[in-house]
Design brief:
Length: about 325
């Protein structure tokens, strides 16, 4: 294995020399004592990849066998929070109190959108989802303990980002039912498809981290800061790759690292020692191994060393982010 491209002390200094970063020093973690959690994941393929919600569930329940970690997903490929808003996803956020009239109005709006533009596959997909919700509303009612808001290239324009604009809208609905928002910050622009021979430039990561950390503080959200955690991984294990070569999505390594960071953030516990070591464990319908975009088996089981390293990196990266955010002062 290659040696880290920077000494650890120098690497951390490069990452965390940010004077204006803002965030709560460390959020409260109600999830740590819960025995049942209803969790809604809102996002796109960056959540769908590697069955992320299911891997997080497996880790959560492995960490506490008495916990029921119930996950629901509302995912549309390539869509952002602003798109989810148009597609009626807020109805799922407030499903505990959603009225029949509100849901019928959403169905009508989507029917009009599909009639206006039959090629709008997202409205068509959302219409199917909402028709099902309309028929089964009473059976589907539940309060969310946690609602995950995934970013995707909508968090790259600083304070003017659409993510910064729309996350508080969702957070208001989540707080109204006693739940809490989780900001899952993706990092498609900084994942590496090849092993690194030189240290990555931390500037873009630092700039985005400042904005997302300030947002988390403003809406009292738990953070899953994957740009910072990925950067730490790149410095500590530059031999690992975090995205596919032929596709910009996170590869299994990044998927596993993300799940570990979720566990660390939700429960304020290190994922070190968790027995979960595989992503994409589901079998295909024809029984043949599924292949990833690079032509390799999609299912990946990590070695004991890689599993331990990724679990440790997730924990250390998250804690260092929180510490740097706290020590940098507040706006």
């Amino acid at each position: 294995m290659r040696k880290p491209v920077l000494g650890i002390t120098a690497a951390l200094a490069a990452i965390f020399l940010v004077s204006s970063i803002s965030s709560a020093a460390e959020p409260a973690h109600p999830a740590a004592k819960a025995k049942k959690l209803n969790v809604l994941f809102i996002g796109n393929s960056f959540t769908a990849c590697h069955d992320l919600a299911q891997v997080v569930k497996a880790m959560a329940e492995a960490g506490d066998p008495s916990l029921s970690f119930n996950v629901t997903t509302v995912l549309y490929g390539g869509r952002r929070l602003v798109d989810h808003w148009r597609l009626g996803t807020p109805n799922f956020v407030k499903i505990a109190t959603l009225t029949t009239e509100e849901e019928q109005a959403t169905v009508k709006s989507l029917e009009e959108a599909v009639a206006k533009d039959p090629k709008d596959k997202y409205s068509a997909s959302a219409l199917i989802r909402h028709r099902d919700l309309s028929r089964n509303l009473e059976k589907m009612r539940k309060k969310w303990d946690l609602v995950v808001l995934q970013s995707y290239r909508d968090d790259m324009e600083g304070d003017k980002s659409l993510y910064v604009e729309y996350a508080p809208k969702y957070a208001e609905m989540v707080k109204a039912q006693g739940g809490r928002v989780v900001l899952y910050e993706t990092t498609p622009a900084t994942q590496n498809s090849k092993p690194l021979d030189a240290p990555p430039n931390p500037a873009a990561v630092n700039e985005k981290a400042k904005v997302i950390a300030a947002l988390a503080r403003r809406i009292d959200a738990i953070m899953v800061p994957m740009s910072t955690v990925a950067l730490r991984c790149q410095m500590v294990r530059p031999d690992l790759t975090l995205r596919y070569v032929k596709d910009s999505h996170l590869n299994p390594t990044m998927g596993y690292l993300t799940a570990c960071t979720f566990y660390a953030a939700l429960f304020n516990r290190s994922p070190e020692g968790l027995p979960i070591d595989t992503v994409n464990a589901r079998a295909t319908k024809d029984g043949k191994p599924a292949l990833d975009p690079d032509g390799n088996p999609l299912k990946q089981t990590f070695s004991a060393k890689d599993r331990a390293d990724l679990q440790r990196i997730a924990w250390e990266g998250l804690k260092q982010f929180q510490q740097a955010a706290a020590s940098g002062g507040h706006r």
